[in-house]
Design goal:
The complex is a heterotrimer of chains A (476), B (457) and C (293).
Chain A (H helix, E strand, L loop, with lengths): L2 E11 L3 E13 L9 E11 L3 E2 L10 H15 L8 E6 L9 H9 L7 E4 L1 H11 L2 H8 L2 E7 L4 E7 L2 E8 L6 E4 L2 E5 L1 H9 L12 H19 L6 H5 L14 E7 L1 H7 L12 H9 L2 H5 L1 E4 L6 H9 L1 E3 L13 E8 L2 H8 L3 H15 L5 E4 L7 H18 L6 E5 L4 H12 L5 E4 L9 E4 L10 E5 L5
Parallel strand pairs in A: 1-5, 5-6, 7-12, 12-13, 15-16, 16-17, 17-18
Antiparallel strand pairs in A: 1-2, 2-3, 2-4, 7-8, 8-9, 10-11, 14-20, 15-19, 19-20
Chain B lengths: L3 E4 L2 E4 L3 H7 L5 H5 L7 H12 L3 H6 L9 H8 L3 H7 L4 H9 L5 H8 L4 H9 L3 H9 L5 E2 L3 E2 L6 E4 L8 H12 L7 E4 L6 H18 L5 E3 L3 H9 L7 E4 L4 H6 L4 H14 L8 E5 L3 H4 L8 H13 L5 E5 L11 H17 L4 E4 L10 H13 L4 E4 L4 E2 L4 E2 L3 H11 L5 H10 L2 E2 L2 E2 L7 H4 L4
Parallel strand pairs in B: 5-6, 5-12, 6-7, 8-9, 9-10, 10-11, 11-12
Antiparallel strand pairs in B: 1-2, 3-4, 13-14, 15-16
Helix pairs in contact in B: 1-3, 5-17, 7-9, 9-17, 9-18, 10-18, 12-13, 13-15, 17-18, 18-19
Chain C lengths: L2 H17 L22 H5 L9 H10 L15 H19 L4 H6 L3 E4 L5 H6 L1 H4 L4 H10 L6 E6 L4 H20 L10 E4 L5 H9 L3 E7 L10 E7 L11 E6 L6 H18 L15
Parallel strand pairs in C: 1-3, 2-3, 2-4
Antiparallel strand pairs in C: 4-5, 5-6
Helix pairs in contact in C: 9-11
Classes of the chains: A alpha/beta (476), B alpha/beta (457), C alpha/beta (293).
Amino acid sequence: MDGEVITSVGIDIGTSTSQVVFSHLFLKNTSGCFSIPHIAFVDKKLIYASQAHLTPFKTQTTLDDEALRRLVLSEYENAGLKPGDIDAGAVIVTGEAARKENAEMLLNSLSDIAGEFVVSTAGPDLEAIISGKGSGAQQISKARGICVINFDIGGGTTNIAAFDDGEITAKGSLDIGGRQIRVEDGRISYISKSAVKIAAAAGFYPELGEPADPDMLRGICRAMAEVLEQAAGVSPADDLLEEVRTAGSTFFAAPGNAKAVCFSGGVADCIHSTGGDPFRYGDIGPFLGEEIAGSRICSELTPLRGKETIRATVVGAGSYSTTVSGSTISHHGSVLPLKNLPVLKLDHFEQERCYGGDSEYLEEKIKWFLGQNDTTRMVLSMTGERSPSYARLKTLAQCVGEAMGEALPAEAPFLLALENDTAKALGQAIEMIAGPTRAVVCIDSVRTEQGDYIDLGRPIMDGMVIPVVIKTLAFG
Amino acid sequence: MTLKSTLLGRTYTFSSVKEVLAKANEQKSGDVLAGLAAESELERVAAKEALSRMTLNTLRENPAVPYEEDEVTRINQDALNETVYNGIKNWTVADFREWILDCDTEEKDLLRVSAGLTAEMIAAVTKLMSNLDLVYAASKMRVPARCNTTIGLPGTLSARLQPNHTTDNVDGITASVLEGLTYGCGDALIGLNPVNDAVSSVTEVLKRLDDIKNNYGIPTQICVLAHITTQIEAVRQGAPADLIFQSVAGSEKGNRAFGFSRETVIEAHELLRKHGTSAGPNVLYFETGQGSELSSESHHGSDQVTMEARCYAFCREFSPFLVNTVVGFIGPEYLYDSRQVVRAGLEDHFMGKLSGLPMGCDCCYTNHMMADQNDLENLSLLLASAGVNYIISVPASDDVMLNYQSNAYHDITAIRAALNLRPIREFELWLEKMGITENGRLSKHAGDPSFLLGKKA
Amino acid sequence: MDNSVIEQVVEAVLAELSRSEGVTVPEAPEIHEPEERDITSEAERAAVLVKNPVDAEAIARMKKYTNARVGVGRAGTRYNTQTLITLRADHAAARDAVFMDIDRELLDGIGLFAVESRCTTKDEFLTRPDLGRQLSDESVSVILEKCVKKPDIQIFAADGLSSTAIKANLPDLLPSLLDGLKNRSGISVGTPFFVKNGRVGLMDQVSELLEARVTCVLIGERPGLATAESMSAYIAYEARVGMEESRRTVISNIHRLGVPAVEAGAYLAGLLCSILKAKASGVGFRRDTGNEG
């Protein structure tokens, strides 16, 4: 088979707005006709993008999941698609919305209408990466071979990712955004905790219900922009930078070699075009945009306009969250798709033990991991050796087969994900040990980290590859 | 017609002109494989002796493949200048050799006579010439050609920059291009041999090469050496191309094995005239190489030098910008060792020039031949002395895609320095402007591909 | 001229030389203890050898995009010495791959018996491809005596243009391939063997001799400087002497840095079964996944 097109959905539910996009992802065998196949994405095309809807809330802090469901369904209709047409994609709940207590329920309620393989993903680090890909920062970084920092500045958070020559080198998130302070009828109607902190550090003490004083709000936004300067590494960092770090995010360690900066998220549009009624959105977004435009970030680094601004995250979710496995893999198609599988990642020493045949160690490790996660399903993951001898591969297969056989229930499939291209051989060797009744799925070209979750899709391209989504954090 | 000769008291007889031509060849493993080579050294010389007394007229009347059967023969015979031919037809091959070598015979004389020569006459005289004969005779002739720039003028040595990549990755290709430019290579062409012959992939590479050419304002031309029909389709779909390339053979059957005919080349020529990105008028690029006809069983019982000469007869019909022999790529069953490769390189260059072609050479060898980099360096130095228009250059001599070795980027700068040759003028000015050379010598930035990254024209 | 005159002249010349302007003698570099190194190692190959580059990181990145030898630096117009010797080492490895024979012990270790083509020397092998495509008469008898007839799948190996490739890959590929075929029930696999001085076309004679349905030869590729270890598999359904080359299915680039031997073995097991099922190979065979059953 020469090529295949899959349809992917991206749903982004943010603190202030929610969006739906549909993309076509083009897969092709990129190896020559004398080589073993290598399937890869060769092109991505946005086929439909909804407008940015205000995210429906039941109360100040609780999302309206029923209204959201209706919203998403109507966008499917607008795009002329049905949930069954969707092959891949991601629902992302971002910013403050993700911290709300009903987020998990919401994601579950969307998963069924968003297509069979669509999965729920969240976590500020992942959002940072996804928005940096969606904005085009990653592509610019790769095309020019430089380090680019992407700031995705939304309502509640600013997700930051650095790409050096296309490779992600730092990620993080700060509680800074355009809707950290809201204004209704000329009065302050909401102030977030982090906005209070930043304001106080700058000598401002805004109160709920008091008239919105443009000078004060501008001053607070200047203070916010200064925190972003610290994050970008163009100003020395102080305690505030750590205090406003988004819960659950990594500390963003600014790379020293950054050359350019790219902005996305709703506030990005206010950076690129200033002026107009400052309270047109009922928040401080326009002030924040203006202050960032005048900050050291834009004078010390080359500011670039992203390909996508407010849609960066949703486009990233729709087009960049899905990858494909290696093209020589081993699987029983019938057990797929499988979602939200916790990943047990073996480190270098543990991997070495397994290649050496220490199945008792691995069995204990798997049992412990299943207990920790309160589950009976998991993916065993390791980097794997690049070109092991067949004897070594068989020892590893023996070790994995025995350990998984002991630790997992009889009906549970053996699931393995390697980085190096040896999955077909390993899968074949494990099948010989596991016997014909056990389902074995062994894929490669997949890089995971401890704590990841993984989704394995239904095989595509005549069964040659499996779509894979790796999440750094999943609910539940 | 005399098809016999006597040496050391022994008489050797030959049954055909074809046999004399084949046996008069310097030894080549391909002729041995084809069963055409002389059986002893004396028989080889006896054939040379017989050939030396043969007239050009006899050679015209005995083409390697009959006129009725073969397009290449027809192209060659039909295009001949009869006035010139009538003036020389009674010369023996020995007369012809001595006239070429005569101190009073100049470039203009040689190129005028060229119009009255068939491939078989050119092959015949080549077989009587020593290596230094071939170098000296070729050095009399310069054949410039113009596409975006003019190459082949006296005092210049140009290079094709060949940035091949194992998967046609455009970033990897770019790395090799930038490296080559900083060694002063690429004034003849920046041209890639693709792995993937799909139109989409060829187009992507052409666009990248075009971007590099335009971004840096490089006075040169670009080409992706896919199959001619792929390139035609890519240009039709809007891909930028200065030149269209094809490998050619010395017989119609051989060209059919390569998947094209005269009509295909005419189509490509017309297409470039309308949609090409170059100024012209010379917009085609051909590659040849001794032995390719035997490998596709289309040699019609002729030796590989004669078939190679016929390639040039085909090429000159289309006034190409570049023609080069890929002299050591084919393997030891056709050219066994460095001796045979060096000889073939000198023969091909001379024959191409005498055919009125802007000749270049890919001085190369594979790892299963009895040759090494020293032999290749020798050949390129000999050819540069003979006035070759351009030679192929790759990063540090290693072509990672075609799995053979050619001249390194470094070699181009060394040969230019040793023989006091220069890149073409426009390109030399560009090198100075970019700071790669200073007053004609490599600057401290030469050889640093990162130096070009921040620079745009 | 007596000696004193000569001495005077020499002194005068030396004095003149020492006065002449523009002559610069490079300062002697500090002497370091020679370090342990292997210039053919991956780390050394990845090293940027350009002196005082504008952006060393950028060159290192370029080197990641291609295995072409960029960023190698120079000594005047020529290679620096490390590059020169690395090239010589890689060429030497390639030459050895072409000219060295496979050890008997290696073949014994993986249970293969050895036969020969009609070529009696490497020289003949290189210049007479026709003879490399035929088995010697004695080899025909040995094969007929030792091999299972009419197998569904017949596998054999040949040195081709790189014995190094066979040495590096066959011991891991062959068992992976045979195990992969064992996993698929109902398929008969012939007796594997090794052919010295063999070319691809020899598989046609083997196929006819043993009346195999699918024949697969594992053969060393012509070595490049990048690797001398690359092996290919050529596969044909009902191969016959004189058939079109386009009927062969080819899988190339099997080596440590390409497709690893064990993985290629597992892939080939699936591919051979697909070809057997499709009753076609080469252009007539639409490549499927080989990933299932």
